[in-house]
Amino acid sequence: MKPVLLIRNDWFESFGVAPGALARGEVDFRSVDMTAADAMLPDLEDVSGVITFGGTVNVDQVDERPQLATVREYTREAVERGVPYLGICLGSQILARAVGEPVVKGPVKEVGFEPIRTTDDAANDPMLSVLEPHETVLHWHEDTHELPPGATLLATADTIAVQAYRVGDSAWGVQFHLEVDAGEFAWWVDTASKQMDLERVWGKSPATLRDEAARHMPRQEERGRALFRRFAEVVRGAVRV
Predict the structure, then answer these.
(1) Angle (nearest 5°) at CA 13 between 221 and 216
(2) 193-232: per-residue pLDDT in tens?
(3) What is the pTM (predicted TM-score) of this model?
(4) Third-level CATH fold of 4-235
(5) d(CA 174, CA 60)
(6) Which residues contact 138 (CB under 8 A, 6 or more apart)?
(7) What residue segments make up the domains of the chain, in order of their start?
(8) Which of 19, 128, 180, 220 is the most exposed place for a label (fewest CB within 10 A)?
(9) According to the 3-state scheme, what is the secondary structure of 4-42?
(10) Is the pLDDT of residue 160 over 70?
(11) How far apart are CA 105 and CA 142, in angstroms?
(12) What number of other Cβ atoms are within 10 A of residue 224's Cβ?
């Protein structure tokens, strides 16, 4: 079976629980680091699915990061061809932008573990039905978007309305980071702390973020593994909308 493609959009992305969960779902994977000068995406004929991960840039910063335009076009083609696609945070925003929905600064910055609610449509969704009606999930983003035309809303929140959605039958966007495990999150917090005053910029101190992770990370990792195993089932054709 053809591998699932993991697209890395920033140097600090390590894919968290995704590789192990895909392997347990009997799906191989390959990755492309889009921060590399010689990065090349494979032909969509050569992959069984695409997962696009997060990053610290806005989806429209294509002059500074021309690879964003490349990934956006690749995403658009995946949607048109029906290649299973999962976009996480920036990947979700890339999906929205690829199907014509503008991406803007959100009314709030979301960081750390915050509550979301799934919609009625999520209950029978091949991917988002892994979540309970009320979950606490990991966020780290400041951009957002409205629901793309014709898309199905799968999760929402009081802070940011579009938390997860599906485009057509085989493309999903999630604003939160279910891929992140304890080790990766600790790396993110340590790295960001060296670059900025986290509490001033994002509204939560490193201590607060670490305390939230201690309480919520076990559930986070469990739900993350379940989500990527579901994606493996989707690409194997075991689950369909």
Answers:
(1) 25
(2) 999 999 999 999 999 999 999 999 999 999 999 999 999 9
(3) 0.95
(4) Rossmann fold (3.40.50)
(5) 18
(6) 112, 113, 176, 177, 178, 180, 185, 216, 220
(7) 4-235
(8) 19
(9) EEEEECCCCCCCCCHHHHHHHCCCCEEEEECCCCCCCCC
(10) yes
(11) 6
(12) 24
Token digits of residue 148: 């793309």
The structure tokens listed for 25 are 């779902």
The DSSP code for 147 is P
Inter-residue contact 164 to 129 (CB < 8 Å): no
Rounded alpha-carbon distances, angstroms, from residue 239 to 44, 146, 230, 236: 21, 27, 8, 8
Q: What is the pLDDT of residues 33-67, one digit of tens each?
A: 999 989 999 999 999 999 999 988 889 889 888 99
Could you tell me which of 110, 101, 3 has the C-alpha nearest to residue 54?
110
Q: What percent of the chain has pLDDT over 90?
A: 90
Judge contact between 160 and 176, C-beta under 8 A.
no
Residues with Cβ within 8 Å of residue 1, at least 6 apart in sequence: 27, 28, 48, 236
